[in-house]
């Protein structure tokens, strides 16, 4: 079991950890040291036990707020997943039927006759003007 020296609040501590966990221990110690540094900057020198207790409480508070936010995000995600699953179970929507009005045959024939008459009139007018 490796033993690692960590520094918190300007004090060194020898701590044992599992093989391969050294980087995690250093990361955790850095977080605790950062909190201890904030306390030292605000309150000056304080007893080691009090400094570690306060730094630990500050980290616990941050962790609790992150866990609360994580629960909110997980609940929102669960709602979205349920909504998505509900949409998947609906299947594809039925195609919408659109009716296009049909022009009656008589109207089409009448329009064709009117067009032919208009062309004939236009031809007569053209003949007379030339």
Automatic annotation (TrEMBL):
It holds the Pfam family ZapA. It comes from Tateyamaria armeniaca. InterPro entries: Cell_div_ZapA-like, Cell_div_ZapA-like_sf, Cell_div_ZapA_N. One of its GO terms (biological process) is cell division. Residues 63-90 form a coiled coil. It comes from the Bacteria. Keywords: Cell cycle, Cell division, Coiled coil. This is Cell division protein ZapA.
């Amino acid at each position: 079991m490796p033993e690692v020296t960590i520094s918190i609040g300007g004090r060194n501590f020898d701590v044992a950890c599992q093989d391969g966990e050294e980087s995690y221990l250093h990361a955790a110690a850095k977080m605790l040291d950062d909190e201890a540094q904030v306390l030292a900057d605000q309150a000056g020198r304080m007893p080691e036990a009090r400094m570690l207790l306060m730094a630990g409480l500050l980290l616990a508070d941050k962790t609790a707020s992150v866990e609360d936010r994580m629960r909110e995000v997980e609940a929102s995600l669960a709602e979205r997943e349920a909504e998505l699953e509900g949409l998947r179970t609906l299947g594809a929507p039925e195609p919408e039927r659109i009716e296009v009005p049909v022009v009656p045959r008589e109207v089409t024939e009448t329009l064709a006759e009117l067009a032919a008459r208009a062309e004939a009139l236009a031809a007569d007018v053209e003949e007379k003007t030339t």
